[in-house]
Amino acid sequence: MATPLRKPFRRAGILAVWLSVAALAGCAQLEQQGQIFSPQPARPPRHAATGPRTDNRNSVQHKELVAQFGGEYSAPAAEAYLNGILAQLARASDTPGQPAYRVTILNTPVVNAFALPSGNLYITRGLLALASDASEVAAVMAHEIAHVTARHSALRAEREREAAVITKAAEVIQNRERGEEIRSSQRLSVASFSRQQELEADAIGVRVIARAGYDPYGAPRFLTSLGKSAELRASLYSKKKSSADFDILSTHPSTPDRVARAVAAARQISAPETGQRDRDGYLASINGLAFGDDPNEGFVRGRNFSHPRLRFAFTAPEGFLLENSNEAVFGVRDADNEALRLDSVRTPAGQSLESYVGSGWVDGLLQSSIKKTEINGLPAVTASARAGEWNFRLAVVQLGDELYRLIFAVRSLNEDAERRFDASIATFHRLTPEEARDVRGLRIGVVAAAPADTISAMSTRMVTPNRPAEYFTLLNELDPDSALVPGEHYKIVIE
Predict the structure, then answer these.
(1) pLDDT digits over 15-70, tens only?
(2) Residue 279: helix, strand or coil by DSSP?
(3) Which of 12, 140, 261, 390 is deepest in the core (most CB within 10 A)?
(4) Number of folded domains that form the chain
(5) 170 and 263 share a domain?
(6) pLDDT digits (tens, 9 = 90+) for 31-45
(7) Which domain holds residue 67?
(8) 406 and 265 housed in the same domain
(9) Does residue 131 contact residue 137 with C-beta atoms inside 8 Å?
(10) What's the predicted TM-score (pTM) here?
């Protein structure tokens, strides 16, 4: 339940708003096959930076941005490797006078990257986990720098101001209805303009990485993986991704047309497999990188959710898929016919649990269902509600200064569903200090395939909340029926 602002939960929430979401809703050598390896640090940059770097990481803008995306993530080997790529990109840049960029890795599993005119380039550990080689991450960084050198942000802001002026003029000169038509037209115009900027940045990026010696096909490969990542997430959680998750797809559309254009741009430069990819070097640099949720901000393991910093845990009913989002913990089951949400609010001063539950924050609350109880020694209140076609079972549990709100939604409430929900509510408990200390986060491990290894065999080693085979193929850019190459290195998710 981490947020970009590092709060455990968003402090507000209305059941009616949630309904729309729910409805969518050891050291071994490299050559030791099948063993997780701990290689030497990533090779040093091939070229020194073209000029002195200006460290702008004490600016207010930098600090606010980093805080919004989970803080800085310390990965010296990965950072040195990425800065080496940046040095090579600088030598091949269309604008050699641009500032020498310096990378900051952000501690978030979402996939994103961006660059600022100050020379700061930001890339999330989620993106590093998804990328498969140096050419792909080089393409991402070159793309983001292209936005800066082409002044895309300033040009887009100017276009938006022009659109606002045109719309206002239409409302004054003609009428409000006509003004709304103009506004819709201008929105499409700005969106088209933004799309053209993305395509331009793609083309610039492909050209720059090729000049730097990297495989220009790294750009379309990463765009393809980005699209597959979004598809997997949508299929898991049966809902569209919220822009509040700050994912790169919020501002960087990944479409078949865009991939095709990137391939066409690469073909104008060289044939496939002619540029540098350095897959082994890249994998060595990210070996051990944290994967998924930061355990200190709560994490999912199957049906279990634990939050070691806030010291609580609970288990969802059988069949639920859980997601730790920036708003709350969400869960879905049975093609959106069942859903759950866990969030928190501050304990209201001078208000009992019963009066809080009945204070109006739940639509359709059945007042007669409010029941005071204890859940594993914690004060709690349970209740039921109905709103439209949905039935709800909810519990509010007090832990310190927080009220944790567990809400289950089901279209057709029966004794079996109610029993499963109540059993899940009964699992909410305070973590002991020993349990909290025992929490281990997930990380990227790199293994060399043994002759008999298959996707299925590798998947049994994956510690992911759901669909390990699909995550293995996604992280390694494989088709489901691909054969593994003995001795080649692959990413897996481990504890």
Answers:
(1) 443 443 333 222 222 222 233 332 223 333 333 333 344 456 667 778 887 888 88
(2) helix
(3) 140
(4) 3
(5) yes
(6) 222 333 322 233 333
(7) 44-277
(8) no
(9) yes
(10) 0.72
